[in-house]
Amino acid sequence: MPGMFIDVRVDAKVAADRTLAKKLTEVCPVNIFAQAPDGTLRVVEENLDECVLCELCIQAAPPGTVRVIKLYQ
Ligand code: SF4
């Protein structure tokens, strides 16, 4: 389920990549990403609306694989 204002979509290949999952978990200043016990990426839905649109996650992953979607105008 997306947040009220923000949704973050991550390509399944990126989410399954433990190295990228670690990188995303480290770069997001508001902890929207976490690693599941097996190291894969988990999007922390309750934090989605904290997104500050810094785009660090977009820069940390291959082009087009992480998208931050504004659900408002
Ligand atoms: S844009 Fe910034 S705050 Fe938003 S999810 Fe990406 S890293 Fe986190």
Give the tags.
binds iron/sulfur cluster; alpha+beta; globular; two-stranded antiparallel ribbon; 73 residues
Write structural notes for this entry:
The protein has 73 residues and is α+β, with helices and mostly antiparallel strands. 27% of the residues lie in helices and 22% in strands. The strands form 2 sheets. The chain has a two-stranded antiparallel ribbon with strand order 1-4. Strands 2-3 form a two-stranded antiparallel sheet. It binds iron/sulfur cluster (SF4). Iron/sulfur cluster (SF4) binds next to α3.
Mean pLDDT: 96
The coarse overall form would be: globular
SS content category: alpha+beta
Strand content: 15-25%
Q: Strands of the biggest beta sheet: in what spatial order?
A: 1-4
The number of helices is: 3
Q: Order of helices and strands, N to C?
A: EHHEEHE
Helix content: 25-40%
Bound molecules: iron/sulfur cluster
**What does the main sheet amount to?**
2 strands, antiparallel
- Spatial extent as radius of gyration: 11 Å
For the terminal residues, how far apart are their CA atoms?
A: 19 Å
**Which stretches are low in confidence, meaning pLDDT under 50 for 5 or more residues running?**
none
Tell me the number of strands.
Answer: 4
Write the layout of secondary structure elements.
Layout: E1 6-10, H1 12-16, H2 18-27, E2 33-35, E3 41-43, H3 56-60, E4 66-70
Short description:
The chain is of the alpha+beta class. It contains 3 helices and 4 strands. It has a two-stranded antiparallel sheet with strand order 1-4. A two-stranded antiparallel sheet has the order 2-3.
